[in-house]
Amino acid sequence: MTVDISTAGMPNSLSPRQPQSNPPVSADSILASVDAFRREMTTDIHEEWVEAVYGEASRLAERSVIRPDQKARFDLDRTIDRLVTSRWLGFPIMLALFTFILWLTIAGANVPSAMLADLLLGTVHPWLKGIAAAISLPWWLDGLLIDGIYLGTAWVVSVMLPPMAIFFPMFTLLEDLGYLPRVAFNLDAIFRKAGAHGKQSMSMMMGFGCNAAGVIATRIIDSPRERLIAIITNNFALCNGRWPTQILIATIFIGGLVPAQLAGLISAGAVVGIALLGVLLTFAVSWALSRTVLKGEVSTFSLELPPYRPPRVLQTIYTSLIDRTIYVLWRAIVFAAPAGAAIWLTANIPVGNISLAEWLINGMNPFGLLLGLNGVILLAYIVAIPANEIVIPTILMLTVLTTGMVDAGAGKGVMFELDSVNATAALFSAGGWTLLTAVNLMLFSLMHNPCSTTIYTIYKETGSVKWTALASLMPVAMGFVVTFTVAQVWRLFS
């Protein structure tokens, strides 16, 4: 009998060589090699293995067992866990951490965002317009390329890059430290009471980065029923593309209600409140689904908490900037460029005496006002179905169109001079925005249809048009109901 083996003649270190194209050897040769290895060993390998196993067991027992005559050993991991997973302190600590991260994001992003906007919109845009004029570029091509595609892309970069460059590394540091599994541990009991699987807490945390990734993360749930609940409700976790909308609107309208010293903290608190509302909606909808169309028993599982690790700050910052910030920004740019072109075209294609965009906005405006929103917001969310990242740039360009704030000779649907938060606030004010508009926009940003990528991912994961339609349309219906209710109550007492 012969076998093809590439490890014959291994060195005494027992480390395998790289595979080689050795000729077949006989079984007798293999046995002879094994016997030679055995004679070369100076100690009994079995005794060493047993000793190592018992040594590790003894170490674990010494760490875990407390004897009556022995004081408890200090364990840093357990000490921290007693605080962050405490019934009374776990949730306050979690809220304080996320509030601090959002406050740092809001307070730290204002200056670089204004600098980027001044560079891209105040310097580069006029320079590009000058070049277009010098080469006698046709007005429609000038408008489409510079006032549509370039301005839409430039606004995405100036609005989204600074906050993402702060938020994602901070969030990744918590993940790298080992804190996020503790958040899942804190939420596990609530998910069970809602009739959902405890592992849904982890897919929900993944959804705070990207809802499509959160939907894929539900594969860790074995029960098909509970996995469907997790998929349908994942959209209530604020994804990357919705954070800039929440942060910008909260900064302008919520932070503007208080003195400047408290503006960042109050704005961060408002965004945290929206994120918490999303978590509450996840519980409520999971409870409703588990008692109606997705009835069944709740599964049990074991959640292993990894040890705390010293955060690798430089590696974490690099990874989060490349894998998250740049990825999300590039995705936003890819969708913002054609969206900017579409907005410019609709703003310059006439329908009677007005543009197509104005015609659509005017048609949606009565329904939007009924919801405490406006036609600009509704049209922006239709245009932004491919990606949530372009909601704010689309709203800004459409608001510029409806307010008539255009540069002489540049055409319609163009953003200008929006190089600061104050200028953006002035634009919203000129568009008739109120505090009610801002609050309902934040609510509708939480409760609306998923982006096209997430919708496609839901279909691929479920293989069902019915469940995909439910996961896509249910949030929109809830958003309409909630914003309508808030608008009517607001107007009743204002």
Q: Could you walk me through the main structural features you see in this protein, from its secondary elements to its overall organization?
A:
With 494 residues, the protein is an all-alpha fold. Helices cover 70% and strands 2% of the residues. It has helices at residues 27-40, 45-64, 76-84, 90-134, 139-177, 180-193, 200-207, 211-217, 224-233, 243-254, 260-290, 313-348, 356-370, 375-383, 391-403, 421-430, 435-446, 452-462, 465-493; strands at residues 2-3, 25-26, 350-351, 354-355. A two-stranded antiparallel ribbon has the order 1-2. Strands 3-4 form a two-stranded antiparallel sheet. Strand 3 and strand 4 (354-355) form a beta hairpin.
Mean pLDDT: 81
* SS-based class: mainly alpha
**End-to-end C-alpha gap:** 93 Å
Query: How much of the polypeptide forms β-strand, as a percent range?
Result: under 5%
Question: Overall 3D geometry?
Answer: globular
**Total beta strand runs:** 4
Unreliable stretches (pLDDT < 50, length at least 5) are 1-20, 407-411, 413-417
**What is the ordering of alpha helices and beta strands?**
EEHHHHHHHHHHHHEEHHHHHHH
Strands ordered across the widest β-sheet: 1-2
The biggest sheet, with number of strands, parallel, antiparallel or mixed sense and barrel status, is: 2 strands, antiparallel
The percent range for helix content is: 55-70%
